[in-house]
């Protein structure tokens, strides 16, 4: 539903005309109401029509939300203002969080393939499979590999391989050891400010966690089960569809055989199909093939050709192309302009979903990524964190309807912002800029599905102004801005609407409004 824009602008114009030129009097309550309504109207979801039931649920939601925010103001203990590692428990006690978990959230559009599923499964199940070996790096990290004893080859910068089954038999406290493995696979720590004193330091640990996780997930049997379990985790968090960024690194078999990218795409497709067979009210999954932004031009060119071929061969599963890795430390998009222009020059379709503007460093060359992403015809912008500093890019993304994928917890943990009330998306929400909420790497941050990020967006970024229609708009946006086909979107909206109605009933049933 699009807002009748001209009327809104006319109203604003009339109001200021009145205020400045003609009616120079004291402001009346009616003037004030007009301004407040205008602001609310522009806010994400502010112009959506509501049903009777939605009004009822909104009433409930506003009450418990207001109570929680007021409590936070009074005590100074407010989850979005705290580091997520400390806020997590508090969030889990929140009735607002409980409602958000129940809510059908639509699609998760910004996620990475090695950080989808809570690490418990990797440690408690994957590392307990037969033939799992571990080695220890000099900086206190770990890597894994599954193979037959005879085929072991020592890894560079890692100790000799040790069979985990044997290792666990030798050590005194297996629980403690397993906990240490979980710490290796996440960034979670008691005192993050002390442990991670700069973005470079945390990105190093972040990459190490990815390397450890990928060494497990790249084993063919783990690869498939991991993805199935990940879909289950999102499904149970009431997410109907996900798009994942994937490097499509070689997956290995026990005998050392390496599988190619085609195999990985087909595996994602098969697992998703299996999952959908088991859970018909799930919409599916798509893959955004991604390469590291530290690649050189030759590698990028190869990747683009591979991406075009995969997109052509697997239109159902492939969504497009992106680049990943620490943005400040990688090449800017413009560095690859020749390679990234190949599809357009050849007249071949390859949608882009560029990460851009995941930086605090205004004016450095990677800071231009956000504008270049739009120049290069990106379909969405991953993060777009710095967009408020780029007026032209902001106007363009609004005009071209290019949504930002806002990942609050990721931005906080990776040290772009500490208090999520100050997240730049607060300003973007106030003007209804196209956006979706996602989780980036929930497993590495200790989150699960999308609910934690939705909570931060709803409570911290949106503040008291965000209402039920904000949540509804964000969920609808996630379907609308996904790479699903037009027909699939119609189906997805239908499915979502059914779940939404059930959700509304459940909330009404759960909260007796007389008690509030
Ligand atoms: C979906 O996006 C289109 C433009 O891409 C927009 O016109 C429409 O209003 C959107 N629908 C919803 C429900 O947000
Ligand atoms: C993981 O391991 C636990 C304990 O052995 C088991 O109960 C559970 O079913 C396993 N989960 C999966 C998905 O294999
Ligand atoms: C091994 O470690 C050294 C020293 O830290 C580093 O220079 C080198 O790049 C590493 N090699 C690999 C393959 O990671
Ligand atoms: C093993 O470690 C866990 C976690 O650190 C701890 O709770 C438990 O008491 C330890 N068990 C023994 C027998 O030391
Ligand atoms: C990773 O695991 C190893 C082996 O248990 C441990 O020595 C190390 O402290 C762990 N790393 C982190 C960050 O906890
Ligand atoms: C990828 O591997 C499959 C077998 O899994 C093979 O049929 C196919 O030709 C390979 N593709 C490429 C591009 O090498
Ligand atoms: C790009 O990187 C590859 C290694 O991945 C290397 O073989 C090649 O020489 C590099 N090309 C240029 C132009 O630097
Ligand atoms: C821009 O991207 C859209 C969506 O992928 C595509 O339909 C269009 O052809 C692209 N335009 C150019 C010039 O590449
Ligand atoms: Zn990302």
UniProtKB/TrEMBL annotation:
Stretch forming the signal peptide: 1-25
One protein family per Pfam: A_deaminase
UniProt EC number: 3.5.4.4
InterPro entries: A_deaminase_dom (IPR001365), A_deaminase_N (IPR013659), ADGF (IPR006331), Ado/ade_deaminase (IPR006330), Metal_Hydrolase (IPR032466)
GO molecular function, one term: metal ion binding
Names of required cofactors: Zn(2+)
Reaction(s) catalysed (UniProt annotation): adenosine + H2O + H(+) = inosine + NH4(+)
Name the record gives this protein: adenosine deaminase
């Amino acid at each position: 539903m699009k807002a009748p824009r001209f009327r809104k602008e006319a109203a604003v114009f009339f109001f200021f005309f009145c205020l400045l030129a003609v009616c120079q009097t004291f402001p009346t309550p009616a003037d004030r109401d007009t301004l407040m309504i205008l602001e609310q109207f522009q806010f994400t979801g502010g112009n959506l029509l509501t049903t009777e039931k939605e009004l009822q649920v909104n009433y409930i939601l506003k009450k418990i939300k207001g109570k929680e925010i007021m409590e936070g103001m009074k005590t100074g203990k407010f989850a979005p203002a705290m580091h997520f590692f400390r806020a997590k428990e508090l969030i889990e006690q929140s009735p607002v969080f409980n409602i958000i978990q129940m809510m059908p959230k639509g699609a998760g559009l910004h996620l990475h393939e090695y950080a989808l599923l809570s690490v418990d499964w990797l440690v408690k199940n994957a590392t307990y499979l037969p033939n799992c070996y571990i080695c220890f790096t000099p900086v206190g990290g770990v890597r894994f590999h599954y193979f037959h004893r005879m085929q072991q080859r020592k890894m560079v910068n890692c100790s000799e391989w040790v069979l985990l089954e044997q290792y666990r038999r030798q050590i005194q406290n297996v629980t403690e050891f397993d906990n240490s493995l979980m710490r290796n696979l996440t960034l979670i720590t008691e005192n993050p400010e002390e442990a991670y004193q700069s973005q470079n330091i945390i990105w190093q640990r972040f990459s190490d966690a990815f390397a450890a996780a990928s060494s497990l997930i790249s084993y063919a049997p783990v690869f498939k089960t991991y993805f199935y379990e990940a879909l289950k985790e999102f499904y149970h968090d009431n997410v109907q569809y996900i798009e994942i960024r994937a490097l499509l690194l070689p997956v290995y078999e026990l005998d050392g055989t390496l599988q190619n990218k085609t195999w990985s795409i087909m595996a994602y497709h098969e697992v998703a199909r299996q999952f959908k067979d088991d859970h018909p009210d799930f919409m599916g999954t798509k893959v955004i093939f991604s390469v590291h932004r530290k690649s050189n031009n030759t590698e990028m060119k190869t990747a683009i050709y591979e991406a075009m071929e995969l997109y052509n061969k697997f239109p159902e599963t492939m969504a497009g192309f992106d680049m990943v890795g620490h943005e400040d430390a990688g090449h800017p998009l413009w560095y690859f302009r020749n390679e990234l222009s190949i599809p357009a020059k050849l007249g071949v379709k390859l949608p882009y979903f560029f990460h851009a503007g995941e930086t605090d460093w205004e004016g450095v060359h990677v800071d231009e990524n956000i504008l270049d992403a739009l120049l290069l015809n990106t379909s969405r912008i991953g993060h777009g964190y710095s967009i408020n500093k780029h007026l032209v890019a902001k106007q363009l993304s609004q005009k071209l309807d290019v949504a930002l994928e806002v990942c609050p917890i990721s931005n906080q943990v990776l040290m772009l912002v500490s208090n999520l009330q100050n997240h730049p998306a607060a300003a973007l929400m106030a003007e209804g800029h196209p956006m979706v909420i996602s989780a980036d790497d929930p497993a590495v941050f200790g989150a699960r599905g999308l609910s934690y990020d939705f909570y931060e967006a709803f409570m911290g970024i949106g503040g008291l102004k965000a209402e039920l229609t904000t949540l509804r708009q964000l969920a609808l946006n996630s379907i609308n801005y996904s790479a699903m086909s037009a027909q699939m979107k119609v189906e997805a909206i239908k499915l979502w609407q059914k779940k939404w109605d059930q959700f509304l009933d459940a909330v009404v049933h759960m909260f007796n409004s007389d008690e509030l």
